[in-house]
Specification:
mainly beta; 2 helices; two-stranded antiparallel sheet; 4-stranded antiparallel sheet
Length: about 120
Protein backbone atom coordinates (compact mmCIF):
# COMPACT_ATOMS: atom_id res chain seq x y z
CA UNK A 1 0.00 0.00 0.00
CA UNK A 2 1.16 3.52 -0.59
CA UNK A 3 1.60 5.86 2.34
CA UNK A 4 0.07 8.64 0.28
CA UNK A 5 -3.47 7.43 0.80
CA UNK A 6 -6.34 9.52 -0.43
CA UNK A 7 -9.27 9.90 1.89
CA UNK A 8 -12.87 10.13 0.74
CA UNK A 9 -12.95 13.88 1.35
CA UNK A 10 -9.80 14.76 -0.60
CA UNK A 11 -10.12 16.20 -4.05
CA UNK A 12 -9.21 13.68 -6.75
CA UNK A 13 -6.71 15.83 -8.64
CA UNK A 14 -3.63 14.52 -10.36
CA UNK A 15 -4.98 10.98 -10.57
CA UNK A 16 -5.27 8.52 -13.40
CA UNK A 17 -7.40 5.40 -13.57
CA UNK A 18 -5.95 2.21 -14.99
CA UNK A 19 -6.67 -1.51 -15.16
CA UNK A 20 -4.64 -3.61 -12.71
CA UNK A 21 -3.88 -7.34 -12.68
CA UNK A 22 -4.39 -8.30 -9.03
CA UNK A 23 -2.97 -11.83 -9.19
CA UNK A 24 0.49 -11.39 -10.65
CA UNK A 25 1.96 -14.62 -9.19
CA UNK A 26 -0.91 -16.93 -10.11
CA UNK A 27 -0.67 -19.24 -13.10
CA UNK A 28 -4.31 -19.17 -14.17
CA UNK A 29 -6.20 -16.30 -15.78
CA UNK A 30 -6.05 -13.01 -13.93
CA UNK A 31 -8.73 -10.72 -12.56
CA UNK A 32 -8.51 -7.16 -13.80
CA UNK A 33 -10.01 -4.14 -12.13
CA UNK A 34 -9.67 -0.38 -11.78
CA UNK A 35 -7.12 1.35 -9.56
CA UNK A 36 -6.31 5.02 -9.01
CA UNK A 37 -2.73 6.09 -9.66
CA UNK A 38 -1.33 9.17 -7.91
CA UNK A 39 0.54 11.75 -9.94
CA UNK A 40 3.29 11.81 -7.29
CA UNK A 41 5.28 8.73 -6.29
CA UNK A 42 4.14 6.63 -3.34
CA UNK A 43 6.22 4.47 -1.04
CA UNK A 44 5.16 1.16 0.47
CA UNK A 45 3.06 1.41 3.64
CA UNK A 46 5.29 0.00 6.39
CA UNK A 47 3.49 0.91 9.59
CA UNK A 48 1.69 -1.67 11.68
CA UNK A 49 -2.07 -1.55 11.61
CA UNK A 50 -4.62 -0.54 9.05
CA UNK A 51 -4.23 2.98 7.58
CA UNK A 52 -6.60 5.48 9.17
CA UNK A 53 -7.17 7.19 5.80
CA UNK A 54 -8.85 4.04 4.47
CA UNK A 55 -11.25 3.46 7.38
CA UNK A 56 -13.82 5.96 6.14
CA UNK A 57 -14.16 4.16 2.80
CA UNK A 58 -16.78 1.47 2.18
CA UNK A 59 -14.53 -1.61 2.35
CA UNK A 60 -14.86 -5.21 1.20
CA UNK A 61 -12.31 -7.78 2.36
CA UNK A 62 -11.83 -10.92 0.27
CA UNK A 63 -9.80 -13.81 1.70
CA UNK A 64 -8.05 -16.04 -0.84
CA UNK A 65 -6.36 -19.39 -0.52
CA UNK A 66 -4.27 -21.63 -2.75
CA UNK A 67 -5.07 -21.34 -6.46
CA UNK A 68 -6.83 -17.98 -5.94
CA UNK A 69 -9.81 -19.74 -4.38
CA UNK A 70 -11.98 -17.20 -2.55
CA UNK A 71 -12.49 -18.63 0.94
CA UNK A 72 -14.17 -15.71 2.72
CA UNK A 73 -15.63 -12.31 1.92
CA UNK A 74 -16.85 -9.64 4.31
CA UNK A 75 -18.04 -6.07 4.05
CA UNK A 76 -16.56 -3.96 6.84
CA UNK A 77 -19.17 -2.51 9.17
CA UNK A 78 -18.64 0.77 11.03
CA UNK A 79 -14.89 0.92 10.30
CA UNK A 80 -14.14 -2.19 12.37
CA UNK A 81 -11.49 -3.45 9.96
CA UNK A 82 -9.40 -5.37 12.50
CA UNK A 83 -12.29 -7.62 13.55
CA UNK A 84 -13.08 -8.44 9.92
CA UNK A 85 -9.41 -9.19 9.19
CA UNK A 86 -9.22 -11.47 12.24
CA UNK A 87 -12.37 -13.37 11.20
CA UNK A 88 -11.11 -13.89 7.65
CA UNK A 89 -7.61 -14.98 8.71
CA UNK A 90 -9.24 -17.40 11.20
CA UNK A 91 -9.90 -19.59 8.14
CA UNK A 92 -6.73 -21.71 7.90
CA UNK A 93 -7.03 -21.84 4.11
CA UNK A 94 -6.80 -18.04 3.71
CA UNK A 95 -3.32 -16.99 2.61
CA UNK A 96 -3.98 -13.30 1.89
CA UNK A 97 -6.74 -10.70 1.77
CA UNK A 98 -7.61 -8.25 -0.99
CA UNK A 99 -9.05 -4.94 0.21
CA UNK A 100 -11.50 -3.32 -2.22
CA UNK A 101 -13.84 -0.38 -2.30
CA UNK A 102 -17.20 -2.06 -1.61
CA UNK A 103 -19.12 0.36 -3.83
CA UNK A 104 -16.82 0.92 -6.82
CA UNK A 105 -15.00 -2.43 -6.67
CA UNK A 106 -11.59 -0.75 -6.95
CA UNK A 107 -8.60 -2.70 -5.68
CA UNK A 108 -6.98 -0.94 -2.71
CA UNK A 109 -4.46 -3.23 -1.06
CA UNK A 110 -3.15 -6.70 -0.30
CA UNK A 111 -2.94 -7.95 3.30
CA UNK A 112 -0.70 -10.89 4.13
CA UNK A 113 -0.39 -12.99 7.26
CA UNK A 114 2.37 -11.96 9.64
CA UNK A 115 5.27 -14.35 9.47
Amino acid sequence: MGTRLMSKRQKATGLAVSAFKHFVKAKSSAFWGPIFIHRDACVRYKQRGFPAALRELPLMLEGYGRGRWQVARERVAHGDVESAITRIFAHAAVEYIHVRNAEAGCYIALLERES
